[in-house]
Automatic annotation (TrEMBL):
Signal peptide: none annotated. Its cofactor is Mg(2+); Mn(2+). It is found in: Cytoplasm. Mg(2+) binds at residues 221, 245, 249. Keywords: Amino-acid biosynthesis, Branched-chain amino acid biosynthesis, Cytoplasm, Leucine biosynthesis, Magnesium, Manganese, Metal-binding, NAD, Oxidoreductase. Pathway: Amino-acid biosynthesis; L-leucine biosynthesis; L-leucine from 3-methyl-2-oxobutanoate: step 3/4. GO terms for biological process: L-leucine biosynthetic process. Its main location: cytoplasm. Catalyzes the oxidation of 3-carboxy-2-hydroxy-4-methylpentanoate (3-isopropylmalate) to 3-carboxy-4-methyl-2-oxopentanoate. The product decarboxylates to 4-methyl-2 oxopentanoate. Its EC number is 1.1.1.85. The gene is leuB. This is 3-isopropylmalate dehydrogenase. It comes from Pontibacillus yanchengensis Y32.
Length: 368
C-alpha cells in the first residue's frame, strides 16, 4: 500500500513523540511492504517563529493533499502572551476547521497493567473502556463574535451550532455505539443553554434511527462527577466541543496518565488527523522523558481509520500492551516494581514487539 503522510511535529514534546510515531510506522512498512512517504511541515509556535503565522498556507495545502496527518502538539510559554491570531493553538484549530474534521474520537481504555497508576480506587477504574465523541469544528471555539471591547473591559465568546452540525456528530456517535456496547450518553447543559436544548432535541430525534442503542442524557456537571465515580457505566459519550475537551482530560485519570490518550479527528470520507490528547508539556519538553504511547496509539488509529490496515493497527496496540506488561513505563506513570525508561527506550521496546509479534484483536476499539 502507498500512502502520503504529513507529519506536523509542532512544539515541546510534540517533536519528540512524533519521532516515535515515525519509527513505529517505519517498522510497519518494513514488515508489511507498505510505502509510506512523509512530508514534514510547520504548525503552532515553530511556524510562528519560522513563517510569522501558526498555520502557513503551505502546511494547509500539504494536509489537503495527504492521505492522513499526524500531529504532535502545539503551544508553549514562549507564545502565551501573543495576540489571539498569533497563538500556536490557532494553528491547530485552523487545520481542524480547514480540513472539516468535525468528529474527534477519544478512546479511553484502562490498560490492566496501569490500574495502580490511577489515583482512583482499583475497583472503580477496573474495566473502564469508553469513547468520547467530541464535536470539533463548532461551538465556543469558533462562534462569532469572539472579542474584547476597545476599553478592554467587555468580552464575548459565542457558543453557536447549526442543527446540521449537531446531527452529523450525533449520527457518528450512534454508529460508534452500534459497534461497541450500544449505549450512548449525550452530555449537555440543557438546564441552562439554548445550544444544549437543540443538542438534546436532535439526540431525541435521532434515537429512532438507531433502535438497538440505549440513550441517556446527562448534564455536564453531573457527568464530570460520574466519569470518575462510575466510569464503567459509560460506553460512548457524545458532546460539544468544549465539554469534550474538558471531559477527555478528566477521563485520562482513569488510564493513569494523559500521556496514554490517543485521538482521531475525522470527517465522513475517512480523511483524518491523528494526535495525542495531551499538549506540548513545556514542563518536561526537551528532557527525553515524555510518554510516547498516546502518539503511538494515535498512529494505530491512523492505520485503522484512514488506511483500513486493521491487522497493523492491532499489532501496534498489542505492542503497547506488551511493553506495559513487561513493566516498562515513563515517569508520568506510577508502576509498582516497573522499570522507568525515557521516550527513546520506551519506543525501542514497542518496536521490538511491532517487528516480532502477531495480533488479532483491537485493544482500543472505536468503531470498525
Ligand atoms: N493538541 C495540542 O496540541 C494541545 C493539547 C493540549 C494543550 N496544548 C497546549 O500545550 C501547552 C501546555 O498545556 P498544558 O500544560 O495545560 O497541558 P499538557 O497536556 O501539555 O500537560 C499537562 C500535564 O501532563 C503532562 N503530560 C502531558 N503529556 C505527557 C506525556 N506524553 N508524557 C508525560 N507527561 C505528559 C505534562 O508534563 C503536564 O504536567 C499549552 O500551550 C496548551 O495550549 C496543546
Ligand atoms: C490546544 C487546544 C486548542 C486543544 C483544544 O482545546 O481542542 C487541546 O486542548 C485538545 O484537547 O486538543
Ligand atoms: Mg484539550
Amino acid at each position: 500500500m502507498e500512502k502520503q503522510i504529513v507529519l506536523l511535529p509542532g512544539d515541546g514534546i510534540g517533536s519528540e513523540v512524533i519521532q516515535s510515531a515515525k519509527q513505529v510506522l517505519d517498522a510497519i512498512t518494513e514488515r508489511f511492504n507498505h510505502t509510506f512517504t512523509y512530508h514534514t511541515h510547520d504548525i503552532g509556535g515553530v511556524a510562528i517563529d519560522q513563517h510569522g503565522t501558526p498555520l502557513p498556507q503551505d502546511t494547509v495545502r500539504a494536509c489537503e493533499q495527504a492521505d492522513a496527518v499526524l500531529l504532535g502538539a502545539v503551544g508553549g510559554p514562549k507564545w502565551d502572551q501573543n495576540p489571539s491570531h498569533l497563538r500556536p493553538e490557532k494553528g491547530l484549530l485552523g487545520i481542524r476547521k480547514s480540513l472539516g474534521l468535525f468528529a474527534n474520537l477519544r478512546p479511553i481504555k484502562g490498560f490492566p497493567q496501569l490500574l495502580h497508576s490511577s489515583p482512583l480506587k482499583h475497583e472503580v477504574v477496573d474495566g473502564s473502556d469508553l469513547l468520547i465523541v467530541r464535536e470539533l469544528t463548532g461551538g465556543l471555539y469558533f462562534g462569532k463574535p469572539s472579542e474584547r471591547s476597545h476599553d478592554g473591559n467587555s468580552v464575548v465568546d459565542t457558543l453557536a451550532y447549526e442543527r446540521s452540525e449537531i446531527e452529523r456528530i450525533v449520527d457518528n456517535a450512534f454508529k460508534s455505539a452500534q459497534l461497541r456496547r450500544k449505549h450512548l450518553t449525550s452530555v449537555d447543559k440543557a438546564n441552562v443553554l439554548e445550544s444544549s436544548k437543540l443538542w438534546r432535541e436532535v439526540v431525541e430525534e435521532k434515537k429512532a434511527d438507531y433502535p438497538d442503542v440505549t440513550v441517556e442524557h446527562q448534564l455536564v456537571d453531573a457527568a464530570a462527577m460520574k466519569l470518575i465515580t462510575a466510569p464503567t457505566d459509560f460506553d460512548v459519550i457524545v458532546t460539544e466541543n468544549m465539554f469534550g475537551d474538558i471531559l477527555s482530560d478528566e477521563a485520562s485519570v482513569l488510564t493513569g496518565s494523559l500521556g496514554m490518550l490517543p485521538s482521531a479527528s475525522l470527517r465522513d470520507d475517512g480523511v483524518g488527523l491523528y494526535e495525542p490528547v495531551h499538549g506540548s508539556a513545556p514542563d518536561i519538553a526537551g528532557k527525553g522523558v515524555a510518554n510516547p504511547l498516546a502518539m503511538i496509539l494515535s498512529t494505530a488509529m491512523m492505520l485503522r481509520h484512514s488506511f483500513h490496515l486493521e491487522k497493523e493497527a492491532n499489532i501496534v496496540e498489542e505492542a503497547v500492551q506488551q511493553v506495559l506488561q513487561d513493566g516498562y513505563h515513563t515517569g508520568d506513570l506510577d508502576v509498582k516494581n516497573g522499570q522507568l525508561v525515557g521516550t527513546k527506550e520506551m519506543t525501542r521496546r514497542v518496536l521490538e514487539h511491532v517487528t516480532s509479534q502477531d495480533a488479532t484483536n483491537s485493544i482500543m476499539t472505536c468503531y470498525a
